[in-house]
Each structure stands twice: as structure tokens, then as C-alpha cells.
Amino acid sequence: MKLLALWCAGTLAASSIAMAQSLDANAATGETAAPPRVEARSADLLAVGIVHADRLTIHLSRLIDNAPVRDVAVTVLFRGIAHPTTAATDGSFTLRDKDLTLPGAAAVEFQIVGQGIRETLEGTLQLSAPTGASDDKNSVRQMGWWVLNFAVCIGFLLLLARRRKAADS
User: Fold this and answer.
1) Burial 119-144 (b: 16+ CB within 10 A, else e)
2) For a tag on the chain, would you pick the N or C end, based on fewer CB atoms within 10 A?
3) Which pairs with CB-CB distance under 8 Å and at least 24 residues apart come from 56-63?
């Protein structure tokens, strides 16, 4: 009986540690991660693209004074397709494409034309899976297994306590 009680106590401790680690890992992979970004530069220009869902926001600036570059046409070559961008009032450029939601690495080429500028800037964008998707498909099953194990051990300990109480009376 004592061996069974020790086994249950050990299993309870192990399951509670495993559940706490699983919850910590799930909390750590939450929404605290920075959005995917790509940087591309030439001798004169710097382009920084930040991805939010299916939208790429591009900030284009001069390296010499970090001033935004306006009144140019920016075309983005992404996954083999040329996409024109839309200029925003804050000086940034926006591209919307459903391919920005696909995970994996992709070469990005920014083609800038206008104001006497004709440059091509290249970079690599590393896109991850959407934040709602879990990399570990078995995490729910594993958590259920630990909860079941925890419940069985509590049941054995309650049964053991009842038997001792009945033996003492």
C-alpha cells in the first residue's frame, strides 16, 4: 500500500511539473514574437519590410540621412511574381498578397524607380506559421494524458485514505 501511495505521489509531482512546463512553453510561444521582417540595402538606400497577416509594409529611406524616400514607384518581386505597391501618406509602401501568409523562406526583391533612382534591393523573408497554429500536434493529447494520469492518482489516494480511515475505526 505504501508503495502504491509513493508511486501516486511521484506521478502527481511529475504530471504537475510536465503540465506547468507545457503551459510555460505555450505562453512563451504566444503573441510576444516580433512580426517577420526583411531588410534589403544598397549603397544609397535601405528598405525594411514588415509583415502583418497578408500585408507587407515597406519603409524606404536613404542611408546617408535616414530620410524617407517618396515619390518613387516600388515594385516587389515575391515568390516569382512582381507586385506593385501602394504609397501611404506616412511615406511607406504597402503590398497585400495572400502568399505572405505561407510559411517558409522567400527571396524578396524591391525595385525602386523614380527621382533619378533606379535600384534593385534584395533580401530574404522568413515567414513562420500563423500564430494560431501549433507546431506540436500532439500537445493537446499529451495534456489530456497528464490530466487523466493526475485524476487516476487522486482516485487511488482517496481510496487509500478511505481504507485507512475504515481500518482505524
Assistant:
1) bebebebebeeeeeeeeeeeeeeeee
2) C
3) 56/94, 56/95, 56/96, 56/97, 56/100, 57/88, 57/92, 57/93, 57/94, 58/85, 58/92, 58/93, 58/94, 58/95, 58/110, 59/91, 59/92, 60/91, 60/92, 60/93, 60/110, 60/112
Name the residue ranges covered by the structural domains of the chain. Answer: 2-31+136-168, 37-127
Cell numbers that stand for 100 in this block:
505572405
Q: What are 128's three cell numbers?
A: 513562420
Q: What average pLDDT does this structure show over 139-159?
A: 81
How far CA 64 is from CA of 43, 67, 71, 78, 115, in Å, comes to 9, 8, 18, 27, 16
Q: What is the mean pLDDT of residues 112-126?
A: 93
**Domain at 37-127, CATH class:** mainly beta
Q: In what order do the strands lie in the sheet with 81-84?
A: 81-84, 73-78, 104-114, 117-127
